Amino acid sequence: MVEAGGRRFEAMIEAFLPPVFAVFFSMALFGAFVALAGVDPIEVYRLMATGAFGSWFSVQNTLQRAAPLLLTALCTALPAQMGMVVIGGEGALVAGGLAAVASGLALSGLGLPVLLVQFAMALAAMAAGGAVICFAGMLRQMRGVNETISSLLLTYIVIAVFKQIVEGVMRDPASLNKPATRALPDSLMLGMLPGTDVHVGLLFGLLFCLFGYVLIYHTTFGFAARVVGGNPRAARLAGLPVGRLVLIVTALGGAAGGLAGMVEVAAIQGRASAALIAGYGFSGILVAFLARQNPLAVIPVAFLLGGIAASGGLLQRRLGLPDATVLVLQGILFVTLLASETLTGRFHLRRPTAEVKEA
Amino acid sequence: MKAEPEPAPAVAMVSRPGAPASDLEVVGLTKRFGAFTALDSVDLRVRAGTVHALLGENGAGKSTLVKCVMGFYRADEGAVLIGGRERTIDNPRAAHALGIGMVYQHFTLVPSMTVLENLVMGRAHVPPVIDWQAERRAVSAFMAGMPFTLPLDVPTASLAAGEKQKAEIIKQLYLSCRFLILDEPTSVLTPEEADEILGLLRRMVEAGQLSVLIITHKFREVLAFADSVTVLRRGRAVGGGRVADLSVDDMARLMIGDREIAAPAARKAQAPGEARLEIDALTADDDHGEPAVRGVSLRVASGEILGIAGVSGNGQSVLVEVLAGQRRPTGGSMRLGGEDYQARRSQMLRHGLSLLPEEPLRNACVGRMSVAENMAFRAFDRPPMARAGWWLRQAGIRRAARDLIARYRVKTSSPDAPIATLSGGNVQRAVLARELSGRVDVLVAANPVFGLDFAAVADIHAQIVEARNRGCAVLLVSEDLDELLELADRILVMFDGRVVLETPASRADRTTIGRAMAGHQAPVI
């Protein structure tokens, strides 16, 4: 038993080596990049650490930015359990944000309890986001359309529809230069976690990740999903409803992305506008891949990426680097990570025992 | 890759239309895969300017033999002689350089390219800039010397199957092959197309331009087009000679063997009970959308083993896929335990259906999941592996797996090892353990002992017979006729997607079955 446990621990370490390697390799590359820009890389990393985790203020800033990433990462990580590569998190987020604002504005005048309205907003956001990604799953299941392409293209369609609505029927006449919807009443805005300036959206993200982990690894539903993801032929042989599982899991992933949109509008922005299209959905893809699609591993990775984003301001102020510098690091990280995927399974802490291979 | 001796430019070789056919001899060829001997000291001689047929059941070693000749595999012992000289053939390019070409069962032309482009691009050395005018002239001149022509400027995708096959042959000849190996070349053709192409090749052989080694299992083709034949059975050359001296019955007996049927293991004499699995006028398509099962009806009763014989690719595997829910039928109906069956989990569970598909790692396992998890596919949503139907109990899964691993002697480092790290035989045992451990009322098994050693074979056969004795209805699909004769109560023979023969195993006649398997309608004896 101890033996088996040790083996599982080793397997886990082996699985996480490539992303760790990717992080260090990209840090080296990024160091070379800032050195070319005439800045001391050590100083950059020191400042990034300070900007991300150096003070209570920066930690809160980091957590604030990590909250939507937790949710948009799940939009990729959950369908990945079914062997699908979904990159439509941005679309789910935008659809969810719009649905949350629309339902919030519609229900705000009815005198309903605040919690009930917020709950309805979250539900509407999850339904909208879920519908977008579930549609990609449906296209794949019924028409054989590649879900990666369709989820990305659906994102563009959703963004176009979003702009159409925000600049059209739902536009607040008072918003002149930057079209936006009317603002949600302050009473509907999400509160802060006690003792912090971090909104409760972080809690939503943490809970959704935990839920995702339990669902995938500790329920019969998750087991069936992993069988489908690993080998659809074996799943059919076991009589599993492959199509239904694909639809449910893609809808769940989309729901996470949609909830991220609700959190953004109901905790930060207060209204739906083009500011909602900030790339959290795309950063979520990076988080999911770095976490090797494990919903639990999404949590630390989202904090790391949130920290990188949070430190951008400090780099700008102190070193005169452009704010977008950290995006370069993100980009390098993603490319290195994809390349390091080929290393998976090549690391062996111990030679495989002979008995496995024989006979 | 290490440098090969440079073959002369193809164009230069093509300009020798009169080059004589070459002969080929294989001496004492032995090929082992691990403990399994695929070829056991096989001798074979193809004289220049003849058609030699290589006959045998699936798994007899035909493909392994030609893959050794073509350089895909390295033989462990033995030699290949071409034109009387021993040659080392390390890879297919070396074979091409020696003038040996092969036409595969499946098309290898680039579908979107024209015949001309395919011919030119197929050469070992294509110049960086192609002078298409010159190439067209060269190919046209070459084509003029062939007994049949093809349109040069049509994408090969739009050619009919027979024309594609001709293009494949033309390509090999254009690449200056003087010895052509054909691997079941007519399996994708209609009988008319097959006759035409084999007839054309026959004429080229008679003109002394070519020698042909043809792999087939159709006696008709052997009788009509081959000069001599070698029969392989279980990796051994068991006989052969001039086709003129042999009858179909001789060849069938050589191919299938005339050992006495081994006494069925601990088989209880019992009358079959009620029908458990009924299939009526079932039709289904293969991956290419071609009909593969064309109206199969059968019923399997409790307490009997129904064997389905046939050469692979005659619809049996598609039939099993439909039963396993891996493929949708296009027509007909299936009933399981008297109830309409759509391969749902609840139906499989209610009527105790278990499946042992072929290639278990591809069909029945998730390679990266652990042995324990793979063993749980049938029962993961029921106690003791699940609580309340939704909460997975890892402990229950692991305990059940440890029990099965011990009981079925699965060799694995731990229940947590990914199942893909196990050897083929152990993957098979793991799947067998999973499928036979619960309540089994209907068992569908496809080549369940393929590639296993003798002990494992006897073990699995005993399990299947034991299931039958318990009253289980067994559908056993096998390409090994010995296995069917040993285990089955009744035998159906499938050919070209249809059931062409049904016979009780006790009165089964190997020759009749062999002829039916080869599509040779047996005269009533």
UniProtKB/TrEMBL annotation, chain B:
Keyword Protease applies: no
Top-level taxon: Bacteria
Keywords linked to the UniProt accession: ATP-binding, Nucleotide-binding
GO molecular function, a single term: ATP hydrolysis activity
UniProt-listed CDD domains: ABC_Carb_Monos_I, ABC_Carb_Monos_II
InterPro entries the record matches: AAA+_ATPase (IPR003593), ABC_carbohydrate_import_ATPase (IPR050107), ABC_transporter-like_ATP-bd (IPR003439), ABC_transporter-like_CS (IPR017871), P-loop_NTPase (IPR027417)
SMART domains per the UniProt record, alphabetical: AAA
Residues in ABC transporter domain copies: 24-259, 277-521
Record-linked Pfam families: ABC_tran
Listed PANTHER family: CARBOHYDRATE TRANSPORT ATP-BINDING PROTEIN MG119-RELATED, GUANOSINE IMPORT ATP-BINDING PROTEIN NUPO
Protein name: ABC transporter ATP-binding protein
